Each structure stands twice: as C-alpha cells, then as structure tokens.
Amino acid sequence: MAGNRSLIGMRLESNLGAGSQKIPIDPRQLRYGVSVTDPYVDWETTERMLRYAPAQIEAETAIARARMSIATQRHTHLVLHSWAVSLGHAQHVPHSKH
Known about the structure:
- This protein is an all-alpha fold and 98 residues long.
- It contains one helix and no strands.
- The two termini are 24 Å apart.
C-alpha cells in the first residue's frame, strides 16, 4: 500500500461476530451478529483496524519513501560513475555502500 497513489480507499466487511455461519434448518440456531454469507471480522477487530490503520499506513509510507531515496542515490551514483568512466576519471568518484 505504501507509495501507491492509485489507492483511494478500502473496503472493510465487519459484523458483530467474526466469521460466517450456514443457515440452519431451525432459524433459532442462528448466531446473532454473525454473517450468513462471507466471513467478516468482528467488531473488536474492526475497531482496532480503524484506530491503528492511519499510523500503520503512515509508517509504511515513510519506509517506501526511504527506499525510494536509497534507490535514487544508487541511480545517481551509477550515473556519476558512468560519466566519470567515460571521462577517464573513475577513481575520483567514491563508491557508495548503499
């Protein structure tokens, strides 16, 4: 997700109870708040996800930005090194340890 500018939202399917259940012959056996279709997350999990998602997304975005910065530095080093080699001055360009 981090760094993905095409992501504009997300869908979270939740219910009071986690999981799903088959529709029984006797409807009194249905568990209240549990899906009869797809398995959903429960309310407590939903609450945690909503509370902590912004911080997690921010952390992942910071990591992605740092990786991009390192990749840019590597590319710049390679360009400078290639340029120096073409001029016959490769020994003057320090080798990056990134």
